[in-house]
Design goal:
The structure is a homodimer of 338-residue chains. Chain A has 338 residues and is mainly alpha-helical. Chain A has a single domain, classed as Farnesyl Diphosphate Synthase, CATH 1.10.600. In chain A, 73% of the residues lie in helices and 1% in strands. In chain A, strands 1-2 form a two-stranded antiparallel sheet. Chains A and B meet through helix 5, helix 7 and helix 8 of A and helix 4, helix 6 and helix 7 of B.
């Protein structure tokens, strides 16, 4: 495949999420309790569906960013826990609505909520979680944090609409693609990191550094996600390969491959992604083309570029355990096997 | 029909929305400009779809409540305009998601957004409008108003899930039904009225009075809405009759009629609403049964009960033009032809 992604690499503490996980472990236990508490409702379906999402084994990277940023800034209160839970609820609400929009049946190898409880429930429980997220932010009472997170909420939705409109369009440029992931993924990473500095009362320059760290980490993370969807390594982890291909999603690997390809190859992408006519051997053929044009390895290169920006964004902070963990999270994001 | 609903009545200023409309006319022009401005986006689909909703000719009762409450409390700033626009965006987002959940094709006699642009766009533009609503609230900077409106957002979604779970269930009691409309309709009316008092810095007792006014007006409004759906008067206004019947919605007229009916009549409701087997003459039969059991006129009676509570809630305020307009809005809501 030409993709530098190895399972053994993830065990190297330099490219591991472990230091970040260890750093926020105690805070994260509070976040998890708050998440369960705020997903409660007398309307049975809500906690039932929420529990499905909470147990789905996501990495919880976004709330970890809020917690780590707060620690980096020496924050001593408990508002970071509520903001982190709010960030995770915003993310969960987006996933619920995304699966409805994309008609996805599987997420992280498990049946999606919309398949189990229907599109209707997914739309409405997403709305409920978004409402609860805002309630938690209001509880914190920081108008600065509220502004950043409500801006992110609008931008994320805008990015999703943008993605819907460019869906299956093989003419998508790298810039178009970047605009979409900047809005639908990087905006929440960015806001999640920034609010940690805001509640700590740090100067604008440090808030801006955290915002830039989050944004570029988010871009790198999404790029790698899109490359991994076509990676053989995924299969060894019991994850499905080619979900994006089957859903006709135009991600950077495809953008690069389409633009670099021959007329005949472009017809292949047109037929499979635009027209949705996918035969038994087409995923294999797609993977051959991606390899031929180094589309996956170049997508990873792009990810490393944004990772480098994220790294430099943190340079103004003095060395510390949180900073080290946040830097390793970048290395993990650009070099992860899952 | 036995329903006291007359077109001529609406022209009587005692039962007219006209005084309220006149009271807030100038503010409402600002709200409308703000709504257009905040529905802007570089993603073309968003303003296009938003414009469809904005032009759809709703009464804009909810934002008018915020404006009128602020006036009643002698508020002099301009925050009420932004909160009113936020309230309308929250309502619009709910309508977008509702139509997806209910698979509705028509709203106020026009094609729904989901029919014109698809469910996906409706879900995502709803999310965008909700994000913009929160941004406007944050702009105002009143944590009190933010708390009230974010609470309402979570409660509305909870009410929608509740409705989804009780849908087509003919065993629904009047209490079950009230719990649903309390959450899905009255919560926003209540919050819309209350925040007008909050930004005016009025004491808790007056905020509570406005909250109670809004809530009970909302209950009355929804009850009348549910009765009107079966009213012949609707047809004369070019509106469709029996939408709720065709969608299998269990509203109070049906709850009363089902419980008061014979075993044979209950089978009729089971077949039509629960099983969804609706023949050509079934709407006519439903209307006959509703008349036989005085279900529409008794639904209107219930509405008058909540209207009376709303009226008493305002009693603590001295006489004024805003108060008079807000009282007349109650009379309109319980006695309106549309």
């Amino acid at each position: 495949m030409g993709v530098v992604v190895s399972l053994s690499g993830a065990r190297d503490p330099q490219v591991s999420l472990a230091p970040l996980v260890a750093l926020v472990q105690e805070d994260m236990a509070h976040v998890n309790r708050l998440i369960l508490d705020r997903a409660r409702s007398n309307v049975e379906l809500i906690p039932e569906l929420a529990r499905h999402l909470i147990d789905s084994g996501g990495k919880r990277l976004r709330p970890m960013l809020t917690l780590a940023s707060a620690r980096l800034c020496g924050y001593e209160g408990d508002a970071h826990v509520r903001l982190a839970a709010a960030v995770e609820f915003m993310h969960t609400a987006t996933l619920l609505h995304d699966d409805v929009v994309d008609e996805s049946n599987l997420r992280r190898g498990r049946k999606t909520a919309r398949l189990l409880w229907g599109n209707e429930a997914s739309v409405l429980v997403g709305d409920f979680l978004l409402g609860q997220a805002f309630k938690m932010m209001v509880d914190v009472g920081s108008l600065g944090a509220l502004r950043i997170l409500s801006d992110a909420a609008a931008i994320i939705a805008e990015g999703e609409v943008m993605q819907l409109m460019t869906a299956k369009n093989t003419d998508t440029t790298e810039d178009d693609y970047l605009a979409v992931i900047d809005a639908k993924t990087a905006a929440l990473f960015s806001a999640a990191a920034e609010v940690g500095g805001v509640i700590a009362g740090k100067p604008k320059s440090e808030q801006a550094a955290l915002r830039s760290y989050g944004r570029n980490l988010g871009l790198a993370f999404q790029l790698v996600d899109d490359a991994l969807d076509y990676s053989g390594e995924q299969a060894t982890l019991g994850k499905s390969v080619g979900d994006d291909f089957r859903e006709g999603k135009i991600t950077l690997p495809v953008v690069l491959c389409y633009r670099r390809g021959s007329a005949e190859e472009r017809s292949f992408w047109q037929r499979t992604l635009h027209d949705g006519e996918i035969g038994e051997h087409d995923l294999g053929e797609a993977m051959n083309l991606l390899k031929k044009h180094s589309a996956l390895s170049d997508t990873m290169e792009r990810a490393r570029h944004y990772g480098a920006i994220a790294r430099d964004a943190l340079a103004i902070f003095p060395e510390s355990k949180p900073k080290s963990a946040m830097l390793k999270a970048i290395a993990f994001s650009v070099d992860r096997p899952y």
